[in-house]
Amino acid sequence: MQSPIKNISKIIRLLKKETKQFENPIATEIGEKTRSPFMVLVSCLLSLRTMDKVTGHVSRKLFEIAKTPQEINKLSLKKLQEIIRPVNFYITKSKRIKDISRILAKKYNGKVPCDFNELMKFKGIGRKTANIVMTYGFFKKDYIAVDIHLHRIPNRLGWMKTKNPHQTEEELKKIVPKKYWQDLNDIFVAHGQNICLPISPFCSKCYINKYCPKMGVARSR
Ligand code: SF4
Q1: N or C: which end of the chain has fewer CB within 10 A?
Q2: Is any ligand 1 atom within 6 A of the Cβ of residue 1?
Q3: Does this model's pTM top 0.85?
Q4: Can you state the angle between helices 37-47 and 90-107, rounded to 10 degrees?
Q5: Which residue's CA is the nearest one to ligand 1's atom 4?
Q6: Where are the strands (E) in 29-72, listed by range?
Q7: 26-137 falls under which CATH superfamily?
């Protein structure tokens, strides 16, 4: 096996190549298509504990009806719940989306603040969501959005031994060259959803298996 840390840039480039065959995570797709931080935020809130396919479908349906805080505010809670019903925890999520939209309209002139710390003040917005909005809503390069995949796989690869996503975020910022930060969430989510599954990963198909302690076998690619 080759040293994982030494080869970090190579591993990221290989993963980028591997994940071209898979669809982008939903927040990235929405960010690229709409350039709307609010839509990225809402799709991210909808996506928590929900499959990307369902989130994508529900997000598109919602945005056909309402895609700004002002438009969400015009919807009744009942109507919003009806639209987003297929996502898990739709009752809690509908309340969160309503609350956030109300505060954005009242205090932020209807705009999502381009400020990580301001975003973190909202109930229902945690580090992952705030980082996703900064990265895929505002296209900022100083953030890494760590979700379960980006927490699990670098630990599996032996890059670090961290206990939670926040620690992972800090470690990644130390060891990964900054030019890759923006892409990290995308490629690790796609890799984690399609190849490096939590149980029974498809190691034989994995582009980076020669750098993985789980395989421990050098293969030239
Ligand atoms: S070799 Fe297997 S465990 Fe290691 S990164 Fe690839 S899929 Fe994951």
Answers
A1: C
A2: no
A3: yes
A4: 160
A5: 212
A6: none
A7: Hypothetical protein; domain 2 (1.10.340.30)
Residue pointed to by tokens 């080869």: 7
Question: Is the distance from the beta carbon of residue 206 to the nearest atom of ligand 1 less than 6 Å?
Answer: yes
Q: Is 158 left (phi over 0), alpha (psi -120 to 50) or beta?
A: left
Probe residue for ligand 1, chosen from 214, 217, 221 as the CB with the greatest number of ligand atoms within 8 Å: 214
- Cα–Cα separations (whole angstroms), residue 177 to 73, 96, 101, 128, 141: 41, 35, 36, 20, 11
Residue 31 to residue 52: CA distance in whole angstroms:
14
| Ligand 1 centroid – CA 145 distance (Å) | 21
| Distance, first Cα to last Cα, the chain | 13
Q: What is the tens place of the pLDDT at every residue in 115-168?
A: 999 999 999 999 999 999 999 999 999 999 999 999 999 999 999 999 999 999
What pLDDT shows up at residue 23? Answer: 86
Beta carbon of 72 within 6 Å of any ligand 1 atom: no
Out of 2.40.50.320, 3.10.50.40, 1.10.1670.10, 3.50.50.60, the CATH code matching 8-23+143-211 is 1.10.1670.10
Residues with catalytic function: 128, 147
Residues 9-36 have pLDDT tens digits of 999 999 999 999 998 888 888 998 999 9
